[in-house]
């Protein structure tokens, strides 16, 4: 506009003649010149919005989810929104999180070439033990309770994980270090719950597992016990990763109950959330339940596309899916909490009316 005005002034020495060249009044020319530098939706001169620019309500949804669940990283936020129907790249989420916060809303299966390879659910299980401190902690300042690793200072957990799907089969709670008999009883109950017997059970060389009684029990169940290679990818590292997630995302975010039934209930909520709602990068954004029960992945469903002029055939953040409805759909972010626990978010997107 300014260039056009100067071009008019070069041919006509005054604004009146410039106005005549544009077939408008001189007052209109003066008004245009004062508004050339305006910005915003009411500006006289507006630059066309880029096709790949996300609307402001997308930024609000990402920042709102981060505010509600501050422990989630940009990759996990992208995976959760992808499962809910909004495909955003990890770099896009990271860039949005760096922007000033918006206070109000605007209008693959695991495979391995190791000796023990899981090709289907309930073929290979991992079993391990860990401890979780209670509110009293692992120690007390008086003797003889200086370093006891037992209740009321901590709980012992026995954990079983399916190798193929990373599905948590179950978690057992014990007031003290469990015996080999207690671990065998726990595994027997997990086999009955899953209604399947694994071909292999991978554990470490703890005396609870690597003993004659445990090996004879495995022989009766037609299970082959295997010892995991410490520090090697794909052995006991898988169950160690689950234990880390359980402690970082559950037990370290609550006051661990002193009552066994209450603590078992907290673990039940986490295991259900972990299996059904927590996406895994190693599973291409799927959840363990989707792989274990062979369900259609939520991140493969048709997606929402908030950009109005985005071409239907243009690529999106992975995994690629079709657009549900029309480009430019608005949505609202809904965050529920599994079992009422604030550290177990369940994210969903609802189309705005």
Describe this structure in words.
The two termini are 39 Å apart. The chain is of the alpha/beta class and 353 residues long. The strands form 2 sheets. It has a 5-stranded mixed sheet with strand order 3-2-1-4-5, sandwiched between helices. It is built from 11 helices and 7 strands. It folds into 3 domains: 2-35; 56-108 and 285-351, no CATH class; 124-278, Ribonuclease H-like superfamily/Ribonuclease H (Nucleotidyltransferase, domain 5, 2-Layer Sandwich). Helix 8 (212-220) links the parallel strand 4 and strand 5 (224-227). Helix content is 34%, strand content 14%. Helix 1 packs across helix 2 (15-22), helix 2 packs across helix 3 (26-35) and helix 5 (74-84) packs across helix 6 (90-98).
- Characterize the overall form: elongated
Q: What is the CA–CA distance across the termini?
A: 39 Å
**Class inferred from helices and paired strands:** alpha/beta
Strand content: 5-15%
* Number of structural units classed as domains: 3
CATH architecture of the largest domain: 2-Layer Sandwich
Rg on CA atoms, Å: 30 Å
| Portion of residues within helices | 25-40%
Helical segment count: 11
Reported by name, the CATH topology of the largest domain is: Nucleotidyltransferase, domain 5
């Amino acid at each position: 506009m300014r260039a056009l005005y100067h071009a008019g002034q070069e041919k006509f020495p005054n604004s009146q003649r410039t106005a005549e060249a544009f077939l408008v009044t001189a007052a209109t020319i003066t008004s245009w010149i004062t508004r050339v530098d305006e910005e915003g939706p009411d500006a006289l001169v507006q630059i066309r919005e880029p096709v790949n620019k996300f609307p402001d309500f997308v930024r609000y949804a990402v920042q709102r989810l981060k505010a509600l669940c501050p422990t989630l990283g940009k990759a996990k936020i992208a995976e959760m929104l992808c499962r809910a129907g909004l495909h955003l790249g990890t770099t896009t989420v990271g860039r949005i999180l760096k922007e000033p916060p918006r206070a109000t809303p605007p209008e693959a299966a695991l495979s391995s070439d190791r000796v023990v390879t899981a090709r289907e659910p309930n073929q290979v299980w991992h079993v391990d033990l860990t401890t979780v401190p209670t509110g009293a902690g692992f120690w007390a300042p008086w003797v003889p309770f200086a370093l006891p690793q037992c209740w009321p200072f901590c709980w012992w957990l026995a954990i079983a994980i399916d190798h193929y799907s990373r599905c948590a089969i179950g978690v057992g709670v014990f007031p003290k270090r469990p015996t080999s008999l207690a671990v065998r009883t726990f595994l027997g109950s997990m086999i009955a719950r899953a209604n399947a017997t694994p071909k292999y059970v991978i554990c470490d060389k703890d005396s609870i597992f690597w003993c004659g009684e445990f090996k004879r029990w495995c022989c009766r169940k037609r299970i082959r016990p295997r010892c995991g290679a410490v520090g090697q990818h794909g052995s006991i590292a898988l169950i160690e990763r689950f234990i880390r997630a359980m402690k970082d995302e559950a037990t370290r975010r609550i006051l661990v109950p002193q009552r066994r039934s209450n603590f078992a209930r907290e673990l039940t909520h986490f295991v259900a959330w972990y299996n059904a709602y927590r996406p895994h990068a190693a599973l291409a954004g799927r959840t363990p339940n989707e792989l274990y029960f062979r369900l259609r992945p939520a991140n493969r469903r048709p997606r929402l596309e908030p950009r109005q002029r985005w071409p239907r055939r243009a690529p999106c953040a992975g995994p690629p899916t079709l657009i549900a409805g029309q480009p430019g759909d608005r949505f609202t972010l809904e965050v529920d909490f599994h079992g009422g626990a604030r550290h177990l978010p369940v994210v969903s997107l609802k189309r705005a009316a």
